[in-house]
Amino acid sequence: MDETRRDRDAEGRARSARPRDGLGRPLPYGVPGVARQPEGVVRSPEETLREAQRLLDAGMPFHAHEVFEDAWKSGPEAERELWRGLAQLAVGLTHAARGNATGGARLLRRGAAALSAYGDASAHGIGIDALTGWAEELAGRVETGGGRTVDAAEEAPRLRRKDG
Fold first, then answer.
1. For the whole model, what pTM was predicted?
2. Do residues 152 and 135 make contact, with C-beta atoms less than 8 angstroms apart?
3. Among 52, 70, 72, 78, which residue is least crowded by beta carbons within 10 Å?
4. What is the spatial distance between Cα 120 and Cα 128, in angstroms, rounded to a whole number?
5. pLDDT tens string 86-106
6. How many CB atoms lie within 10 A of CB 1?
7. Alpha-carbon Rg of the chain, whole angstroms?
């Protein structure tokens, strides 16, 4: 591969072929990385939540964001903001784990705001109130943490209500 040129797909869009770590950061060519999530996978809400929770628990919120992004793009219009909000929470956790307190807090709060529009509705058993509380609390901690990174696996939220 010519490393001086950007990787492109068949339509000419930029597609980085560089390996990535568990937080989605690019690694040097030739270094083993974490397998990327396939794009455009259509899953049921149950499958989406199960796969995203598995990735969050494994400390891979960037990859969980990609799962939520697929649901956001392929799901019904009425649920797009739900999945987009969940994707923003995952990206916020990604930034916080990378040490980007400002970006992490901003995205955590943006995701919480998107989810709060659902109130206490039980969309697919998702614990909306618990997730928005988690996001606000983590956003506050990363802002006042002096640039310390957080452990993505330790901070992984529970997506479903305990009874859901």
1. 0.85
2. no
3. 78
4. 6
5. 999 999 999 999 999 999 999
6. 9
7. 16
